[in-house]
Amino acid sequence: MPSSNVMWVEKYRPQKISELVNQKEILGSINSMLKNQSEMPHLLFSGSAGVGKTSAALCLSKEILGEHSKDYTLELNASDERGINMVRERVKKFSRFAGLDTEIPFKIIILDEADEMTTDAQTALRRIIEDTAKICRFILIANNLSKISLSTPNSFAIIATLIHIPFLSCLQ
């Protein structure tokens, strides 16, 4: 698609972590994780719309996977496909697909608007996260943290490596 037909939000989206603005503390946390990528946990980015959660997730994927990011990153908008079938068909298939390149530490699955997923879909997702923890990292993105049942201590206790990163509003 010619660049003149691309929406500005995509055309001018940051491509590197260093290009993200107004999230100094968040960038410090992300850069710390990048120093030891094999130990990177699953992540939960939360905050109001437009603060850079999705951009940060995509930049993180590009930083870790480099030129392989398109092949080893699955980005889904969970508000478009929010049910259990999306989790079973798209996420499970991608997460179990064999053939990791030796240069790739793991695959990355970005679920934008994960707070819009049904409870059944979140339960199925939890099981997939547990089963594929050695070869996949999940980045869940939410505007409304209270709708993420995965983030409650009792229901998410097995996945102790989920790190919650709250993004600040740009309007502060």
Summarize this structure briefly.
This protein is an alpha/beta fold and 172 residues long. The protein is built from 6 helices and 5 strands; from the N terminus they run ααβααβαβαββ. It has a single domain (41-166), classed as Rossmann fold (3-Layer(aba) Sandwich).
Structure description:
With 172 residues, the protein is α/β, with parallel strands linked by helices. The protein has one domain: P-loop containing nucleotide triphosphate hydrolases (Rossmann fold). It contains 6 helices and 5 strands, in the order ααβααβαβαββ. It has a 5-stranded parallel sheet with strand order 2-3-4-1-5, with helices on both faces. Helix 6 (119-131) links the parallel strand 3 (107-112) and strand 4. It is globular. Residues 152-162 have low confidence and may be disordered.
What best-fitting shape do the alpha-carbon axes yield? globular
CATH H level, superfamily name: P-loop containing nucleotide triphosphate hydrolases
Radius of gyration: 16 Å
Strand order of the largest sheet: 2-3-4-1-5
CATH topology: Rossmann fold
Q: In what range is the share of β-strand residues?
A: 15-25%
Number of helices: 6
- Secondary structural class: alpha/beta
Q: Helical proportion? A: 25-40%
Order of helices and strands: HHEHHEHEHEE
Average pLDDT: 78
